[in-house]
Specification:
Blueprint: H1 2-19, E1 25-26, E2 36-43, H2 52-59, E3 81-82, E4 84-91, E5 98-105, E6 111-118, E7 127-132, E8 137-145, E9 149-160, E10 167-176, E11 182-184, E12 188-192, E13 201-214, E14 217-231, E15 237-243, E16 249-255, E17 263-264, E18 272-280, E19 286-294, E20 299-305, E21 310-318
Parallel strand pairs: 1-13, 9-14, 17-21
Antiparallel strand pairs: 2-6, 2-10, 3-11, 4-5, 6-7, 8-9, 9-21, 10-11, 10-12, 13-14, 15-16, 15-18, 18-19, 20-21
Length: 321
């Protein structure tokens, strides 16, 4: 019996692995609200949400030897991890004014990138909100609302620094149900080489389409999500060189990673300034990249590496005198 059970487990694990490859959802429902793909939740740990016990019990029910008849409807055993709707207070650093927003958060560590509808409550109507982790750079969100079709496009890039070891990022799809609940299911993993050169790039796309009938009118809805992972050597420091009209150096200011100010005010005589980013490649050699900004520019962008190795983009407003 032990030998037969081992064969069953091997078959089941193979099917379990295949479920993680289902990144697209096609719904043809016309009478009811289907759970809709809302975005993606990235983790470095596999979300083990599959109901293996239930699957085993149903697949091996009445097993008396011979061939094993497995349950082909695997999706009904796929578990869900629900997000909590929370209220956060934001403070304007310049004015000190505060405002409150509502968004969704999962109870495990991960990187969120999705759009969801916050249900209406007494005194406030429902509204759509986007949840994007600071680890998502170059983010783009396009929402089109029409009489017959609604479409949403989400894009973003996660910049990761080489760690010397391979890391797997799991791209877990996020859904929202008719009752407003937001949940994530187990997704597919993408492995990033720990010794990859800067600029190494990989991406994954999720697409979904649904149709829904409300008040007798049918509307098509679609969403496309593209998430990229790119390798970036972690910056060691940032240097700003301010220049006058004759390209003479006015000042040189050095910043540690992540210490760039929210607002940068150039000197009165500064015509342009150069932002230098210092890094070291996989051989330990120093690399310096330079970007030039003039009075037509309103902000700069620099990066710093977090403790988890993800390089986060930092925006600095330029306030010209």
């Amino acid at each position: 019996m032990k030998h037969k059970m081992m064969i069953a487990m091997c078959c089941i694990l193979l099917l379990y692995a295949l479920t993680g490859c289902q990144l697209a959802l096609e719904n043809a429902g016309t009478d009811t609200y289907e759970d809709r793909l809302a975005g993606i939740f990235v983790t470095t740990q596999h979300l083990d949400l599959f109901d293996m016990e239930g699957y085993l019990n149903d697949s091996l029910k009445g097993f008396q030897g011979g061939n094993i008849i497995v349950d082909g409807d695997i999706q009904k055993y796929q578990g869900r991890l629900y997000a909590a709707l929370r209220t956060r207070t934001l403070t304007n650093e310049e004015t000190g004014e505060t405002s409150k927003i509502e968004d969704y958060a999962f109870p495990v560590d991960g990187i969120s990138c999705f759009v969801a509808t916050v249900p209406a409550i007494e005194g406030r109507g429902g509204y759509r909100t986007s949840i994007s982790d600071p680890a998502i750079s170059n983010g783009r969100m396009d929402i089109h609302v029409g009489d017959e079709t609604n479409s949403t496009t989400l894009e973003g890039t996660i910049y990761v620094s080489p760690t010397g070891r391979d890391i797997t990022y799991y791209l877990n799809p996020v859904y929202q149900s008719a009752d407003g609940n937001v949940y994530v299911t187990t997704g597919q993993g993408i492995s990033a080489s720990g010794m990859a050169s800067e600029g190494a790039f990989m991406s994954q796309t999720m697409d979904a389409a649904t149709t829904v009938t409300e008040n007798g009118k049918t509307k098509a809805e679609s969403i496309s999500i593209k998430l990229s992972i790119s390798v970036m050597f972690p910056p060691e420091k940032t240097v700003i060189l301010q220049m006058d009209t004759d390209s003479n150096l006015i000042s040189r200011t050095e910043y540690a990673p992540g210490a760039m100010p929210e607002v940068f005010t150039p000197e009165l005589d500064t015509t342009c300034f150069i932002v230098e980013t210092y890094k070291r490649d996989d051989t330990g050699s120093l690399k310096i990249s330079r970007e030039i900004y003039d009075r037509d520019d309103e902000n700069t962008e620099t990066f710093f590496a977090r403790a988890d190795g993800i390089c986060v983009k930092h925006w600095t407003q330029i306030k010209w005198k």
